[in-house]
Every structure is written in C-alpha cells, then in structure tokens.
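Re: beginner question about structure tokens

> Can someone show what the tokenized structure looks like for a real chain? I only ever see the sequence side.

Sure, here's an example I had lying around. Input first:
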Amino acid sequence: MLEFYCRKSKPHLKDLHRKSIEKNIEFKILIWGDNMEDMIKMLADAPEEQRKTMLMERMKMIATQPEDQRLESVKGIVMAISKLPKDKMKAFIRTRTDAVLEASDDLRKKIVVARAKISSQIPKEVHEADMMAIAEYMTKWPKEKLDMVMSKMAPIYKEAGLPAPDYKSMVEKIKAMN
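And the corresponding structure tokens:
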C-alpha cells in the first residue's frame, strides 16, 4: 500500500485517485489539515524518516515567519505533541530533537529561540514533560554527543539573552532514577 501525505488544497488528488483505481493500486491519502493537532497526529503515525522529513519542511516554513507568528507556530506544535499518547509523544519529541540538531545553524537558532520564548506561555506541566522527554532521549547518547550538542546550543541561548535549559543535570537526574 502506498501512502501519500499532502495538504488539503491539492486539486489533483481526485485525478490521482481515479488513476490508482484504473491501475488497481491501493493507496491511502492522509490529509494535512490547517489544524496543527491534525498535522501532528498524522505525523505521529508516519514512519520516523517521513516524520522527520516533513517536520523539517514545516520548521523551514516556520523559520520564515515573522517572530510573533513563529512563536505561535512553535507553541502550537508543542501543545499538539503534548496531546499525543505518551509513547507517541516521546517518539515525536525524539524525531523533533533530531530534526533540530540536523537543521542548518540559522534554522536551528530560530526554532530553539522560539521554543525557549514560548516556555512561559504554555502550561508548566506541558513544558516540563517536553523538556524531560528531550532529557530522557539524551540519556541514551554518548557523553561526546551530549557535550557537542550542549556546545552548539549554549551560544544560541546566550545570544538571545535566554536561560539555557540545564539538560546535563536533567540527564543525570533521570539516570539516577533508573
């Protein structure tokens, strides 16, 4: 079965569906709505590589937005992720973390700063669950990767005048609990 992920407004879908019936190809079209929650749910069910690719494309689009709109978009993503079942939420946050780390310096900076700025605009439990899921993922990393990531992130927070999350202590706390 082929799966297509696309936006609602694609007029060629009817033609694609007709051609697939003619050729006896089974496929499913999963629609990205304008609703962030719908998009996140759809991506949470997608294979990880596809989720990462689509999330990267979404982050590129968000990075081009004016700051106030960028903050709302990042806030919408974080809030939508928080509504997923716990296992899907953690998997999605791992994918998001990897996508941010693989992004260009400029894209990473815009997304990380937006995420830091919205931390006081979302419920405390959502912020903490999101941060702990990142830290939990980091516990699986070798020390060298953790140090490298921290060295990439620290200047971003410093330049933006924002407090950097203390992932190292969160990681140590999680390791001590296990």
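Each token stands for a local structural state, so reading them left to right follows the chain. Confidence is low (pLDDT under 50) at residues 1-13, 24-33.
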